[in-house]
């Protein structure tokens, strides 16, 4: 298939692997974080690490929107859905994310809550139009990739004067999460001997970067002296990006480079950025699973759209709630723990019985390792 097969060519992948092995300096250890859950999935699916020399390793990052949503926000969504007259619209992969007390949206639906799985924001708009007697709330999550679709739905709801539609906004931002991963005390981020994880560079997200472009990474790369290479999701994209990172390390550079030139530009999608800026503003602080409370890391609806904001309409006040103490999602999301190192991986925790969010979403590192038999 055009634009797929040529990026999955095994002969080419092995040729790039040979080049990486010849250019990676013996005795030097290279460790790169793939930020995005889609890349984590690709690493597991295509056995990317198996192609790399032993001194070039990948660690997984926090770029899975379902995984980073804290327990308290799932609890809020369940409480919303259980209100009389409310219909909660959500993407399917949120249904089984564990909430506090062993709850989940799926269990809430079994208990009678009106929770509907949708494929897009437009589905939620249609439900609100078709059922004017219901208070329809769209459970909006995701990084910059999905935010434009939510912004467009909000603008449409305003234009249609839909009074029974609102958005429970949980959109988060990529650059502050990268900053949070890197912005730890030196000895915590120094190397594997400290119990922290050393990150030499980033494979930058693909879809997010189609929206925000490559420019937002420049200040981060400069400040932390870490190279970033934005890459596509296909195996050859990943292999080429890793080679570009190895070359930057060898040259002592920390630039932002773009491997995914067929989709990503320096400036990004200006139309999408304008839609986001019209509807959303920075939230002062937001809790991330695994990363904790991060300032300026998420979005909320602007005052001009307050009537479409479910948090204001239903007076939601999120209570921070601890994750299952046995689940190591927090460390998995920071790249400190590999999924199979968690004691629960594959024993009590599996996609059928997930104990943490990283085992629920297909983009979660634990689910990816499970799906492709990566048990080490
Ligand atoms: Fe959490 Fe399960 Fe992953 Fe362990 S294997 S970190 S319990 S999601």
Write up this protein.
The structure is a single chain. Strand 3 (86-90), helix 6 and strand 4 (114-117) form a beta-alpha-beta unit. The two termini are 33 Å apart. The model is unreliable at 191-195 (pLDDT under 50). The protein has 16 helices and 11 strands. By secondary structure, it is of the alpha/beta class. 48% of the residues are buried. A 5-stranded parallel β-sheet has the order 2-1-7-8-9. The chain has a 4-stranded parallel β-sheet with strand order 4-3-5-6, with helices on both faces. A two-stranded antiparallel ribbon has the order 10-11. It folds into 3 domains: 5-58 and 199-258, 3-Layer(aba) Sandwich (Rossmann fold), CATH 3.40.50.11750; 67-174 and 268-313, 3-Layer(aba) Sandwich (Rossmann fold), CATH 3.40.50.11740; 329-367, no CATH class. Iron/sulfur cluster binds next to helix 15. This is Hydrogenase maturation factor. It holds the Pfam family HypD. One of its GO terms (molecular function) is 4 iron, 4 sulfur cluster binding. It comes from Lichenicola cladoniae.
